Request: fold
Amino acid sequence: MLTQSDLSIPTLGEPRFDSPLLDDGVHTRFMPDKARVLHEIDYLEGDDVVELGFEKAGARERVFFDAKASKAAIVTCGGLCPGLNNVVRNLYYQLHSSYGVPTVLGIRYGYQGLNPEKGLPPIELTSAMVEPIHHQGGTILGTSRGPQDPQVMVDFLQQQGVNMLFCIGGDGTQKGAHAIAQEVKRRSLELAVVGIPKTIDNDIKYCYRTFGYLTAVAEAEKVIDCAHIEAKSVPNGVGLVKLMGREAGFIAAAATIASGEVNFTLIPEVPFELEGDSGLLAKLERRLEDRDHAVIVVAEGAGQHLLERHGAEFDKSGNRKLGDIGLFLKGQIGAHFAGRNLPVSVKYFDPSYNIRSVPAGAGDSLLCEQLARQAVNAAMAGKTDLFIGLWQNHTVHVPLAISTGQIKRIDPEQELWSTVLAITGQQKW
Reply:
């Protein structure tokens, strides 16, 4: 059970300077430190409402750092995601152009760039360098997976004179940011650590939507529509699409709704079986008898219990390695129909890396700007050990301590999944 103290944000100390935004001619609306966004906004009339709230993000009228004497660094970690360059670009502009921070470093290839024995030296970002990058996929800074020693990373940041670090990445990255912040606290240093949550799967706890997710859904919808065309073009055609979603099926569910052409959606949160009258294969057979074609969308983390694996294996980010459910289903469908002497034509699509590397769409571009701007506002105010989250359609400060190590998943009892079931009709086949 969360308490208000769990949502409190660590700070480096009392603000010491007037914000440079007071003189930027933009008439910035400053956010008071006591502003909150309710954790829960739904309630039944007559119930006692618990006023539990996240600290609201926004520019503060007084800041902790003297901007003109400050140096910032930006690091991107983990897998690619639409919008990484947008965040880097907007962090730079908010730091350099809005606040007047003279030097912004780009850390090369993830956290290994904070370890001088393993990484390349940082680069100094310039306006000319970042101006066009929001039209490009990927990250100009490069990325990598895996942790580094927090003591080594903080040593490096001290040597470079950095007093603001912005960590763009998923849960593993934010765990690393939290470890850095804790080491900074142990040394009583004036170094703010602020995260910008990045996961294409949209599974970060206490963040309603992460950047890259809407772009991924839009791109996935295009692939599903192609799979539908392929399936309808041949007798007993099956379009099988595997999408991202290690622990949560948000992309698969949302793309299913957006497309409206899917008959079976399989996600990690809802177990399914292959065999038996209520299994996927029997349902697929009945669907083909009725309509002569079908489209199946499967999230990469779905159905892992069906795959024979000997012991758990993990990647450099600490994520459990998954079996390939897409290829497994393709083989099982083919074998099932061959055994029944029924012709079937399975067209398999795996667009995951294509989707990860595209530029951000308009919705994600807007979110990237919002998250980056508020991350700089938080760091300049001396707030640390937090990430910027989107909650109840407001940007908020989320303590890293309460979010890291947790996964946001689809609730099968809520509207998103019930909508998927209504659109696919997969329970009736």
Notes: The CA atoms of residues 230 and 239 lie 7 Å apart. The first strand starts at residue 17 and ends at 18. The radius of gyration is 24 Å. The first helix runs from residue 84 to 99.
